[in-house]
Amino acid sequence: MLKFLKLSIVCSLIFGSSSLLHAQIENAGTFSGTVFGDYYWMASHHLDGPSPQQDIEGKHGFRFRRIYFTHEYQLGADFSTRLRLEMENPGDYTTQASMTPGVKDAYLKWKPGRHSLYLGISGTPTWDVVERVWGYRSLEQTPLDLQGYGSSRDFGIAAKGPLNEEGTLKYQAMYGNGAGNASEINRGKKFMFSLAYYPDNYWTFQVYGDYNDRPDNSEWYTYQVFASYESDAFSVGSLLAHQVRDNNVGEDDQTIASVFAHFPFDDQMKGVLRLDHTFNNNPNGNSIDNLPFSSSADATFFLAAVDIQPVEDVNVHLMPNIETVFYNNSQLPGNNTPDANLLARMTFSYGF
User: Fold this and answer.
1) What are the structural domains of the chain?
2) With 60 as the cut, is the pLDDT of residue 258 above it?
3) To which H or E segment does residue 146 belong?
């Protein structure tokens, strides 16, 4: 009888602990992750010289470009939180260092009805809609992101939601530091606003604008229009953006146009195409990660890829792709046009 009593107590403790652990797991929120990287070969590049900063052509190797870990938790009926940690490769072909960790998202969200308010580090409206339609961050950044027109994240206060009962007209507004997810060290702030119209399940139209009061008496204004069509047969998007860069030494305006498309060959294979053109030389072009652009000429960027999903309904993708950049209207002495860039990659991505 005593042995039976002891056994009953042990079983009760085991099952009680198991139930408590199960309840804790159920209330732990959701955890997810995304990983992408490449085996790359820089077949040709305009930076091809004796110094480490001019010795990119011919380099090849394996690399992780991004690793994301995301935790989301529902605090109650109206409040939730999100924390996303990011690790990234320097991507400059000269720095030999481990991946750099950082905070990508860290915000408190309040949604009492159809509108949401965010406090903390959250996504900006700069290319939020564009990136969703583009859908291939693992291949390349969106055009404005690639050319450094802004940041995908900022620390501040944001709001988004529908402006009509049908939910076809939506806004997103943000007041932030203008420093991305870095610390704020200046007096200026950034205002961002976008308005998107969804007339049906296929079309998206968006207008966007921002004002960024930058350090050193510099002010940047950004304007963008975007349109897309999405269906099971194909998806296509196009944008035009202009940025006024009123710096303390004068204006350095930037304009970019882009068109992209992706289309299925079958249930497990898609084609991806994209064409960007910058109408001005980007003075910070040589500092673009993974594919430095010339800072002295207009550029035409082209991407072609095949997205292969080896197992249907499993989030694993293999994507052979090439990226090329051609230059014209050179600002170099003698109007010498920089050599074209050609980057070949086998990109992989997976998520859970």
Assistant:
1) 46-351 (2.40.160.10)
2) yes
3) helix 143-146
